[in-house]
Each structure stands twice: as structure tokens, then as C-alpha cells.
Specification:
alpha+beta; four-stranded mixed beta sheet; 60% helix; 300 residues; elongated
Length: 300
């Protein structure tokens, strides 16, 4: 049986899912951004706090890394809203108006003005049956799963784009490694010839060092200037990065570590280089590695 390849996901995504019943409407919003690990934060309205464990478990089941903000908005339909008259408050208002009538020459208050006073009309929250509440909760939970499905689809699409860009940067790194390997300055004989010329110059100007000691220094300098080991390790990192991209899944952390190793070898190559062309290649390598790292920072 053929094993299905795991997808590469971005850590950035957004999804919104709206739902409702005869009395209440709701909307889930889920936003995820980059993060070193998985951090889930939920904002739930009063009466729905019990959904928090469900939200955290559902997000953890869908995402491996990233900062996730999950919001639930719930609104009772205005058509279902009932009102009651606060008669006690109305009596107090009318009493005040009666006392002021003898002092002020003003038109009597209109009914719509009285009803517009805060607190005169109060909303009446209709009591839902236990059956209605249970049915609504199930619908809200189902919409959360749907929203997470949409989020994963978006993260997957973005992940495919990141994967393509990462492959391009790795191809560039491999090409530059090949250029560095073919550079004349990296060849042992070329290094020895250049260093011997420097040593001959020093020997002709000073008798303080013996030729044997100069030969030892020559071998030491040649070893320090040889960048073949760095190029071999860079090529090994290229192969490892390609294997990760081909395998898919939650590979962001491993790729981030490889970028650090890429950068370490490129820095060493530049520090060893005494050749203008090799230095240029080394700087181009560092630039390509940084571009790869920027894309890797978005991969789950």
C-alpha cells in the first residue's frame, strides 16, 4: 500500500465560519501566525466559556506550530427579542416630571421620549430549553471543525508556495557550491603556489626563519585556506534539506536548524577566502541562505 506524502503547511492562515438557528447567530474566526511552538488563545462570550478545552484540543489536533487566536461571536436575533416595561422606574420619572411642572413652563413629555429613556424598556432574555441549548452547542462545535478545515486548506495552499520557493533557494545554494568548488582559488595546488610565492618573498627578505620552518608554516596555512571540507558539508546540508522537503510534514524546525548550519559553513568559507571571486560566491551563498531562512520561518 502506497503511503500518502504528508503536506507542508504554512503557519499563517485565517478562516471564518458563520452559523445560526431560529434564536441565535454565531461566527467563528480563527487566525494563525508564526510561532516557535503551538500557542492557542480563545476569546469566548459569556456562557460559552466551557468551550475553551474543546477549542484547544481541536486546534492542537489540526496544527503543530503557530500562534492561534480563536474568537467566537454570539448574537441573539433581534426579531426574537422581547421587552418589558420597568414600571417602578417609569413611576419615578413621572413623579419627577410632576414636581417640575409647577416650576417650568414646558410641554408635557411625549410617550416615545419616555420610552427612549434608559432602563424604561428592558430586554427579556428568553429561556432556552435544555434540548435547544444542547442542539445549539453541537451546531457551534460542528462549525468550529468546519472553520478549522478551511484554515488547514489555506495553510496547505500557502505551504505549497513556500515549498516551491524553498526548493528554488536550495537549487541556488547548490549551484553556488559548485561554482565555489570549481574556483581556481579552492584547488590545493593553486593555494600552495600562492602561499609559496609569499613564503619565498619572506625568505628573501629575512634570514630569521629556516626554510624547514617556512615549509611547516606553508602546510599550516594551506590547510587553513582549504575550503573543500566546508563545501562538502554544504552539499550534505543541501541533500538533507531536499530530503526533508520531499518527506513533507511538520519540518519547519529541522529546516531552521539546517539554515543555521548552512550559514555557519558559508561564514567559514568567507573567512578563509583570500580570493575575490570566492568571496563573491561566499556572499551570494549567504544571501541565498538568508532568503531560504525567511521562507523556512513560515513553515510549520
Amino acid at each position: 500500500m502506497t503511503k500518502t506524502k504528508a503536506l507542508v503547511h504554512s503557519m499563517t492562515g485565517f478562516a471564518r465560519m458563520e452559523g445560526g438557528d431560529d434564536s441565535v447567530s454565531w461566527a467563528w474566526e480563527i487566525k494563525t501566525v508564526n510561532g516557535r511552538s503551538l500557542d492557542v488563545r480563545s476569546r469566548l462570550p459569556g456562557g460559552y466559556e466551557a468551550l475553551d478545552p474543546l477549542v484547544r484540543k481541536a486546534v492542537a489536533g489540526a496544527c503543530h506550530r503557530g500562534n492561534a487566536q480563536v474568537n467566537l461571536q454570539v448574537k441573539r436575533g433581534e426579531a426574537q427579542q422581547a421587552w418589558q416595561l420597568n414600571e417602578e422606574l417609569l413611576e419615578q420619572v413621572l413623579d419627577v416630571i410632576g414636581r417640575l411642572e409647577s416650576r417650568l413652563d414646558a410641554a408635557p413629555p411625549r410617550l416615545d421620549g419616555l420610552l427612549a429613556l434608559r432602563g424604561i424598556l428592558e430586554p427579556v432574555e428568553e429561556e432556552d430549553s435544555a434540548e435547544d441549548r444542547d442542539r445549539r452547542r453541537q451546531a457551534i462545535e460542528a462549525d468550529l471543525k468546519t472553520a478549522l478545515g478551511s484554515l488547514l486548506a489555506m495553510r496547505s495552499e500557502e505551504g505549497a508556495r513556500l515549498l516551491q520557493m524553498a526548493r528554488g533557494h536550495i537549487d541556488t545554494i547548490e549551484r553556488l557550491c559548485g561554482e565555489a568548488a570549481g574556483c581556481a582559488a579552492t584547488q590545493p595546488e593553486s593555494l600552495r603556489q600562492r602561499l609559496r610565492e609569499q613564503m619565498d618573498l619572506l625568505l628573501s627578505e629575512s634570514n630569521a626563519l629556516s626554510e624547514e620552518r617556512l615549509e611547516q608554516e606553508l602546510a599550516l596555512l594551506a590547510g587553513k585556506a582549504d575550503v573543500r571540507e566546508e563545501l562538502d558539508r554544504l552539499q550534505a546540508h543541501v541533500s538533507a534539506a531536499r530530503a526533508l522537503l520531499d518527506g513533507g510534514g511538520a519540518i519547519g524546525r529541522k529546516l531552521d536548524f539546517l539554515c543555521q548550519e548552512f550559514n555557519r559553513e558559508a561564514n567559514t568559507l568567507c573567512s578563509k577566502s583570500a580570493d575575490v571571486e570566492l568571496t563573491r560566491i561566499g556572499l551570494d551563498l549567504k544571501s541565498a541562505i538568508e532568503q531560504l531562512r525567511e521562507q523556512v520561518q513560515n513553515i510549520e
